[in-house]
Amino acid sequence: MPRFKKKSMIALISVASVLLLLILHITLNVNPIIEQVSEKEVLALAEVAVNSACDEVIGEYFTTDIVGYLMDKDGNLQMVTTNTALMNLISRKATEVSQQRIETLGQQGVPIPLGSLSGITVLTGQGPDVYIKVFPIGSVNATFTSEFVAAGINQTRHKIILNVTADIKVVMPGSNNVVQTQTQILMCENVIIGKVPDAYFDMHNLSDLLNLIP
Q1: Spatial separation of the C-alpha atoms in residues 139 and 91, rounded to whole Å
Q2: Residue 104 to residue 134: CA distance in whole angstroms
Q3: Of 24, 28, 33, 53, most Cβ neighbours within 10 A?
Q4: How confident is the model over 132-166, as pLDDT tens digits?
Q5: How many CB atoms lie within 10 A of CB 186?
Q6: Cα 146 versus chain centre, distance
Q7: Is the pLDDT of residue 104 over 70?
Q8: What is the C-alpha separation between 211 and 214, in angstroms, rounded?
């Protein structure tokens, strides 16, 4: 083999080896960092989108109309009543608007500074933005939960919370991951003066609460 061809072959093998090592380094070290940073950014922006959607929907209604309390002649809690029609309406509209906001987020892409993807702390937030595509999977789900918390002598704080969950696909070169965002919105909070049956304190699912009459 001529000397020139031999040197060219050695150079070609050297370059190929360096490229192979570089690809291996990116696969083993850089890609996990990119996935982790991208997922965190997507979750943060998705939570903002869901929160703003829920705030917009909830602002259209009087949440004080959601729940009522039936007391006995001694001033103790006898039954909790809820406006299920209003709650269903809020839940449905909150999921619809949240879905729209996440779809808009996906169309625009999630901007992440290139320095943040490097995994180097001093470069975090630096450099041009790289846009990561996101897509909602299925529909956004919303459920209500109820919490009773002792708030003092003969006082109980009652909260009704709207829980919104969305599964989101994060699309990157060579990787498609699914992340889930969970957002809790306080719908209403009331302080009940009087004795509350112990059975209520075990109720978290609102459907169970509605069926409970001490």
Answers
A1: 13
A2: 10
A3: 53
A4: 776 666 678 888 888 888 877 888 888 888 999 88
A5: 12
A6: 20
A7: yes
A8: 10
